[in-house]
Amino acid sequence: MKLELRGITKIFGSLVANDHIDLVVEEGEIHALLGENGAGKSTLMNVLYGFYDPDDGEILVDDVPRTFTGPGDAMAAGIGMVHQHFMLVPVFTVAENVALGHEPVKGGGILDLKVARARVREISERFGFDIDPDALIEDLPVGAQQRVEIIKALSRDAQVLILDEPTAVLTPQETDELIEIMRELRAAGTSIVFITHKLREVRAVADRITVIRRGKVVGTASPQSSEKELASAMVGRSVSLGVEKAPAKPSDVRLQVRDLAVTNAAGAKALDSVSFDVAGGEILAIAGVQGNGQTELAEAILGMQPRATGSVRLGGTELVGRSIRQVLDAGVGFVPEDRSKDGIIASFSIEENLILDLHDRAPFAKGPMIDRRVVAENAERQIEQFDVRARSAQDLGSQLSGGNQQKLVLAREMSRPLELFIASQPTRGLDVGSIEFVHKRIVAERDAGTAVIIVSTELDEVLDLADRIAVMYRGQIIGVVPAGTSRDVLGLMMAGLPLAAAQTEAAKHPTHPADAGRPAGTPEVLS
Amino acid sequence: MTDRQPGTSTAPGTTKGSEPRDPSGTAEPNRGRTLLRDIAESTGAVVTLAVLAALALAAVLIAAANPEVQRTASYVFARPSDFLTAVWEAVWSAYSSLFRGAVFDPQASTTERMFRPLTETLTASVPLIFAGLGLGIGFRSGLFNIGAQGQVVLGAVVSAYVGFAFQLPALLHVTLAVLGGLMAGALWAGIAGALKARFGANEVIVTIMLNSIAVLLMSYLLSTTAFKRPGSNNPISPMLDESAMFVPLLGDSFRLHAGWLLALAAAVGTWWLMERSTWGFKFRAVGANADAARTAGTSVRAVYVWVMLVAGGLAGLGGVSQVLGTEGVLQEGVAGSIGFDAITVALLGRSRPLGTVLAATLFGALRAGSPLMQTVSGTPIDIVLVVQAVIVLLIAAPPLVRSMFRLPAPGSGSRLAKEVAA
């Protein structure tokens, strides 16, 4: 099936989200849609999937113009979508989830799950998905859940599959598996629209690349283009990939974590006897797949986990058992992983967001009163220093893009003298330009002598920033390795193998194309 | 409530807890809180239109309940003009008498009496202003305090007791009575705040229960010798000492009292607290995003307690103003439905001090004008309750009002940014 978008335009108020976008997806082609956050990729796909009505332009399926008034129409036309956040019912089985929405029934309106089960088994076998139709969704790992989403789309005879940032939630190994699946689907004649901002994956799997910037198609690229070329096309100026940083000059040990443990409400150990040191002037990156205790680790250090046991000593001061306020006052800066939930207040102005932590201290407070002049001056200074793009300091937090929200959080947390700086997922969801800025700031903080902990699930980020890497798995630190460790070894450790085993295993299966180490200047091998 | 659920398991891939959150959009907060914020942030246009729509709907009901309209409706197709005249007469007579009872009565015998309705409106607005201000602070701090009624009752009980049980010099007496009522309301609400902070008890349920307890507590007290008027079998307290009463503002022929000025001062104070002080900053931060406030080092639990103390103190002053301003005595029914009407007032006033004063004045007018409306036009006084209820209904569903009047959706700027992102 051939899918064509012609001159799609979507306008929200004064903002042109999609400006005459043309896109042709041929049968059996993997077409990557590359663009920064806010470039208009998702809007375009939502138009295609029938969520939005385009203001102009048309959608052609096999050269026949079609209009979709809702996802149902799009599905009927053979378009399937796998959302970034899975649309699955956790307590239902795979078969039930696949059946949901067009349930097969036998006489008397009774649900016929046998048909659904058979369908799941058939698709699963055809593409080697290895999915049990009777497994509960909540028991499946993320990668398998994603395959269920794909089965769901295929069971409705999707011939064009839209994958919206599918690798954001996967381990490197799971990403490899997904790429393998995409290739098989392509071989079977399914077209795939692959939305992403990860350059490496695009180059590994795409047949064609369309780059979108500010709602417009700025060009197509071949998968042979270098990452730097793709990044420049995406951002509209030349960018430096990777982080330029001098070797670390670690001073004395600043932070000592000993036997830190957190037991969650269910009685399980979310964080299990974790010990490590961080020196001043050093970046320790905590790598690991989302949900392996990194969140609890950061929160326990910050005093947000009342059930934390063990010891966290910052320059001789014990932090466990202290309030968040006291921990912050001890010189800890914190960038939470979910900035819209924990980092900023959407309905507060930039000014107010910048003083969330210090609003009752001098110079911002004079007695019980907030000195609005000082607050305004502070905002002006920080906006300038941290390059927050906004019309004015009165703009609300919700009016900022993700990148600017993150700069705002950084500005606030770095405006105090720090002993320790913790950033969780500091660049999640940010565009290339903002990532560059955030990384530079973090390195600058390190060079100023602060002990820095970066929690990240992105291997690229870990490798770019770290002076040492601690890998977490099921609440434990499975190993601490030096900065130069290969992606393969790290990926295997993230899946639970100890360092020695990971090294042996990695040696057995040398560099996978999609998961290759990225030595500077060496072109990647493409299959 | 304040404890965050830690990630439920260490296994990578359960959807619970380990799900990465949308980095670009605003995370979905507690739904009840979203509703609270939507209501608090609803625009002035929506509020005004909601009031007009409520009055229009009430007009339909007034006409429908009118016997003359019902009679002419039976031959509406034969002589539609009769029917329309009857409808017009019914609605006009109801609303004009409401106006005469609430604002200005040109048919009164003396100039003084002509202006009397307005002063009645202002008098009726006083307890609503106090309680509405308190509730508004709670709403903006993310606390759905339904307990104003109980706080009003407790404020009334304690200020009345101070008022009749002691003989003190005038200024001192009234000051003590006011402070007593304020503290009683604050402590009563503080129970709910402390339970929420310490044990995560839902403030909606706790405050509703405290309402019942407060009302029954007053009934009990009125049966004890400490409160009951000597020689009376009715549950009524002795008359308050003159020295404890608020002074009338316009002489003895009007009921408007100094409590009105105190209410306006409280509105200014509330504005200062919420918009200019460090405490108000904390309150608003917790209300808008408790997680972010906590992460920035604010003790959310302490804020819950303080908000309830302040809110309860203001509601307590509502009870004080009833007793010291108009009633002069403690009896069952002294609090009327002030605590519940104040919820509507706070919502209608968008939880802002100025809005609350205006909304309380509107409700005071409905309250002051409805008796005359009933006598003159025969419209049941309950129609006022319908107006109030419909206002709440419409404010709670801003999209309904917007679609009724074809208003554009607010904040489309931020919403579209969210849609375009990712």
Structural description of this entry:
The complex is a heterodimer of chains A (527) and B (422). With 527 residues, chain A is α/β, with parallel strands linked by helices. Chain A folds into three domains: 233 residues, P-loop containing nucleotide triphosphate hydrolases (Rossmann fold, 3-Layer(aba) Sandwich), CATH 3.40.50; 201 residues, Rossmann fold (3-Layer(aba) Sandwich), CATH 3.40.50.300; 69 residues, no CATH class. Helix content of chain A is 33%, strand content 25%. Chain A is built from 18 helices and 24 strands. In chain A, the strands form six sheets. A six-stranded mixed β-sheet of chain A has the order 6-9-10-3-11-12, with helices on both faces. A six-stranded mixed β-sheet of chain A has the order 18-21-22-15-23-24, with helices on both faces. A four-stranded antiparallel β-sheet of chain A has the order 2-1-4-5, with helices on one face. In chain A, a hairpin with a 2-residue loop joins strand 19 and strand 20. In chain A, helix 4 packs across helix 5 and helix 14 runs parallel beside helix 15. The C terminus of chain A is likely disordered. By secondary structure, chain B is mainly alpha-helical. Chain B has one domain: ABC transporter involved in vitamin B12 uptake, BtuC. In chain B, 69% of the residues lie in helices and 0% in strands. In chain B, helix 6 crosses helix 13. Chain B is globular. At the A-B interface, helix 1, helix 5, helix 9, helix 10 and helix 11 of A face helix 10, helix 11 and helix 17 of B.
List keywords for this structure.
heterodimer, A: 527 residues, alpha/beta, Rossmann fold, 3 domains, 6-stranded mixed beta sheet, 24 strands, disordered C terminus, B: 422 residues, mainly alpha, ABC transporter involved in vitamin B12 uptake, BtuC, 69% helix
